[in-house]
Amino acid sequence: MATPKQITEPAAPAVDAATEPAQPAAQVIDIDKLKTLDPRRKVFVRDSRTGRKIDNPVPETHLVIFPHLREVASKKEGK
Predict the structure, then answer these.
(1) Burial letters for 18-55: b for 16+ Cβ neighbours within 10 Å, e otherwise?
(2) How far apart (Å, rounded) are the C-alpha atoms in residues 23 and 41?
(3) Domain extents for the chain?
């Protein structure tokens, strides 16, 4: 009885740093700062990449998770 021919995968091509796209760096979240913020408190934010204000308030913890968001001062004095 003949044994079936074993098929092997071709060797992986060598990785060339010039042609490989750069991997984005992993985002580091400051856990200590995240613990001090209240997720129930909503704040108005501005996107620093586009410069546009986001219409709906977001949880305060989003300021740490999404570094491109900046808090916008409230129009109400007491808030």
Answers:
(1) eeeeeeeeeeeeeeeeeeebeeeeebbbeeeeeeeeee
(2) 34
(3) 31-71
pLDDT value for 8:
74
* Residue 72 · residue 45 · CB < 8 Å: yes
Whole-number pLDDT of residue 6: 73
d(CA 67, CA 28): 10
Reading the block at residue 49, the tokens are: 């990449």
Report the pLDDT averaged over residues 36-49. 87
Query: CA torsion, points 61, 64, 69, 72, in degrees to nearest 10?
Result: 60
Q: What's residue 18's pLDDT?
A: 63
E-state strands within the chain: 42-43, 45-47, 58-59, 69-71
